[in-house]
């Protein structure tokens, strides 16, 4: 006679299945995090090795600026490529001091809130590092008056006499170079960035001192590098470039303009050539691509591996996952994310070097 075997209890099967799925899911998360961190670390090591085999020179002693001002026209100070120019608002944080780093931030007259967030977080001045906000002129009288009040309080605005418009970005970038050439030639390094970017200020300082040199560098151009980019020709794009503006199918290698680290000698060379070149309105392509190519600056050093992706920023903000070392957040960050990243940075030990 056959014995009746009762079926397994359904609830036990469900429990075991849930337990299996939980363990498997946890394993997948750990695995992919490990892979991501491994790739990130390997990428950093690759970039560091590149830093040690490029065509720039690190100083091992103090130096004086040696710009060949005699190569510039007598009227140069009041010209900006193809227009008359003057500084409408100017400040002089480099007077009687030799900075380690001058940070020049592209801003717009109405971006009061963005400037405040930077001042409250990574943009605080100290004796070695100074921050300036660069902009063109405003059309609104109210904005003009508010800017004067803001500058009286913070003394960190540089304003040019050109209109602050999208098509005038190259004037703004060239004004930044002009300011360094005439008013801050002895700074060791210059960082050009935007007012929606996060800079890991404490690690940046250690990077310059320990990974590069506290005495500065020569022929240094570090940035997120773009190779073989094509101009946008479609009429629907705000980046549209006509063949009259640029006739070639590809841009020269250039830097994305939201994080460019210059040595002052590179700035002088780019400024001198940019002042006598034909104006092109996309500033990073013009200065670090077209002009750089004309004077044979070809050693763009890619720092993309030291820049957080959007997903990495979310992981840090939401889960406090470590993605170190990094020098920059991604472009187009909002104010809350900048505040959150700053809280993360100041609540963790600062590495002495990007090699850690």
From TrEMBL:
Its EC number is 2.4.1.-. Its main location: Golgi. The chain crosses the membrane at residues 15-34. It is an enzyme of class 2 (transferase). It is found in: Golgi apparatus membrane. Coiled coil: none annotated. GO terms for molecular function: hexosyltransferase activity. It is a single-pass type II membrane protein. Keywords: Glycoprotein, Glycosyltransferase, Golgi apparatus, Membrane, Signal-anchor, Transferase, Transmembrane, Transmembrane helix. One of its GO terms (cellular component) is Golgi membrane. The keyword DNA repair does not apply. Gene3D superfamilies: 3.90.550.50. GO terms for biological process: protein O-linked glycosylation. Belongs to the glycosyltransferase 31 family. PANTHER family: BETA-1,3-N-ACETYLGLUCOSAMINYLTRANSFERASE, HEXOSYLTRANSFERASE. This is Hexosyltransferase. It comes from Rhamnusium bicolor.
